[in-house]
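Final paragraph of the annual report: two paired records, presented back to back.
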Amino acid sequence: MTLRSFVVGGAGFIGSHMVDRLVLRGPVTIYDNLSVGKPAFVADHLASGRATLVQGDALDLDRLCEAMAGHDLVVHLAANPEARWGLERTRLDLEQGTIATYDVLEAMRRTGVPRLIFSSSGTMYGETSKTCAEEDLGALPISLYGASKMAGEALISAFVECFGLQAFIFRFGNVVGPRGTHGAALDFLRKLRDSKVELEVLGDGKQAKPYLFVTDCVDGMLFGLDHADARLNIHNLAPSDTTSVARIAELCVAASPYQDAAIRYTGGDRGWPGDVPRSYMNPEKLATLGFRVKHSSDEAVGMAVAALAKEVFPEAR
């Protein structure tokens, strides 16, 4: 059956890779304010007519409803792309996370779109030393970004119960890969481009998290859509292993034209207030449905660094 998909944030990093998959299932409407997303990421699909771009903000409920009407599935991937920004603008995650998610849900209610895929985060689990499965929410989030994801999940649960929607919530590890618009690897590569002789790394480099390659991320979401059948479906989407910040820094230096650059750690056990130093996620719930990521955390980081280095240092190709 043809699937008519509506992707909020569809011109962004994860969103554009999701559009790559969804155009194979039917027409796609990309709804994006282009604050971070780039039309170039989806240019081929726009040129072919398989996708349409509507420039609009998720905070504009009337425009969102107008554009969303007539679709079968909403994929909500728009959010504050960088958790640290919330330290400077404390309303950012409230607006781009919580309120934007409410608007998406309310637009679905008004227009009758029945199914939602939502990008949540491992930051939901807060700061804990244990490996977290979906039912583990004993530690509250410690970042405004994580708080907005928790609020978004709660709103989704309520809309599912009150208005009969079906939702698929995926708690991501740190997603990496080509077309990345934020994250440690891209930040490190840009610092090397500007400094050439030194890479400053926030913290002690021992921070470690599961890194998820972007195509694994998209494949996992669509697998869950196709195989999970509850009204509210919540799945971790991450590899079972982790990669340290020090390892990412080393790979970035090696992939840059400045392989003699020194790595300087600023010290402390985390990069910034609200940063979870170490995160461990249990992916077995989605595995019981038949899905496992293809790439380990280290493999995902290595592939991402190689792809991003070509984007940051095109002259070195």
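The closing record of the year follows.
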Amino acid sequence: MRIGILGAGAYAMAISSILDNNNHELTMWTEFVDEAEALKSTRKNDKKMPGFTLPEKINITTDLEKSIINKDLIILAIPTQFLDTVCKKMKSYINNNKILITSKGIDQKTGFLVDKIIRTNLNTENIAILSGPTFAIDIPKKSQIGLSIASSNKETESLIKEIFDNEYVNLDYTKDIIGTELCGAVKNIYAIVMGLLEGLECNESTKAFFMTEIIKETKELINLFGGTEETILTYASIGDIFLTCNSKSSRNYSFGTLLGDKQNKLKSKKYLEETTVEGVYTLRSMKKILQAQNKSFKIIDTIYEIIENEQEPTKILKIFK
């Protein structure tokens, strides 16, 4: 199959390792000339993907048209904040291509989930979401991983299954695009919460209690947004939440840990100024959406008060009593 990967970040490179292993013809696009030239000459980007070497047969280009025309599948692996701009540039080249989205999050300006950004700009139903509990650095190791494919288009789902399925990639399938996207976004909020509990030196029993409440609240959010309850049991939901909320290497978790530690209060502010913490941006967008609907969710509301209104971190421990 001929596949265009838009983006040259860690996850784009990780996905390329699966597709190269499955013997597909790949073209990777970046709009940055310096990045493209560096990848062509070294096949590495140790800042984004330490230790990984991009296979030689993957074509690198800054020509958007070449990465889209005559491709069986287009993979969007770029940060959510740039999706709208890139989709507008893609519009004149798209011709019934199947599109797979690996970007996660909520657009800060519009409050749109990623599939709505795509549909609004490209007027297509040939889309699917790929999501699951995977760190980019782990994927090229060919250890067992689980990924969810969410699509309401049978042809797109079948094509992606054919392209991705192998001995170490395990796939589950759902028609619930909204629920799958939502879980991929809010898991970063909840990772801050679990980091906060670490900073507060909570024991494992308390952490397990909160993990359970996080799963319950996610299920309620899925319902509110019009998703399907069963999505909570997919790799994209409970799997990704479990991974992100227990990872000390996560920026969201790390920020939460600093936030919960009284001795590191100033460090948490500095960390937020110097580091992109996706969960904070998602939290702000989600709070606006919930306020517009006059809805209240205990964990989201409380972590918002702690971060944005500088409430005491221990407030999180009192919300269920």
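The chain has a mean pLDDT of 94. This concludes the annual technical report; the extension proposal builds directly on these records.
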